[in-house]
Amino acid sequence: WEFGDINVKAFDSLLRTCHGETIGHKMGKIGPILESHLSGEAISSLTTAPSSESKEDVQLIFQTKLFIMALVQSIVSNPDLPKKYVQPFAEALLTNAVIPNLVWQVGSHASALRKLSAAVLLSILQGGTSTLTICKLCPELLPILKSTLGDDDGIIRELVSVSLSKIFEALPAVLGEQAIDKLYPELMRGLDDGNENVRFASCDALRNFLRCAPAANYRGTAIEYMVENLFVHLDDPNPGLQEKVYAALVAAVSVDPAVVAKNAEASIFSHRHSKYCKKLLNLACDK
Length: 287
Description:
Blueprint: H1 6-17, H2 20-25, H3 27-38, H4 40-47, H5 55-76, H6 83-102, H7 108-126, H8 131-148, H9 154-170, H10 177-189, H11 196-209, H12 221-234, H13 239-255, H14 257-267, H15 275-286
Helix pairs in contact: 3-6, 5-7, 6-7, 6-8, 7-9, 8-9, 9-11, 10-12, 11-13, 12-13, 12-14, 13-14, 13-15, 14-15
């Protein structure tokens, strides 16, 4: 199907008007249809297309993908769709339809597709995707999400930050040192984002990031850099952000209480409000 085809419009209308339970029972047939229109092979064709292919053809491919991805989002975010029906197809849907379309490409259509793909990813993660599925997809998914944290669109950065928080929350303390070293600088940059929602989401992501690996995997430069910079943001004028940063630092206490205590002592007299510094110092000293 192509964008504007009467059949794809009928398919869209049918699924949007169906009750979630009905869609769930038919996911085995619906899923492959959606994947076929959003597959990695199709996205690759945009970058390997012959020079004779017109801009109109490329635009039509993107419009079709946007139309189908919007339909996927309406399905996976449908409150009437029992999540038990999505979970068996989550791995295939993420691998074949979502992850390929999160990869950066130039242009406004590509940006819109990344945004929709990020929304679908978050909806699937919020639906309780199994830990096994997340672990299997992490080697492919995490590098793409890390790159997308630098997207020009603030909404995409926010969606990806929240998704990373969900992923880190689900990981059973298995993240390796190499992954930590690659991820933490990008996660920390979110605290300086011009979009306040991204800053809040980054705090949550960092809090869960500090819990998804053995403490030894953070020791050294990683934990020292994170704690030092988190204390800078603990003095933010926004009380809501202070609370979020404090929660991330509480997680850091379990990783390296000595580093947290050192920074808390250094910050007590320089911060405009010292209550969080004192609480963190007490927590760290009790470890």
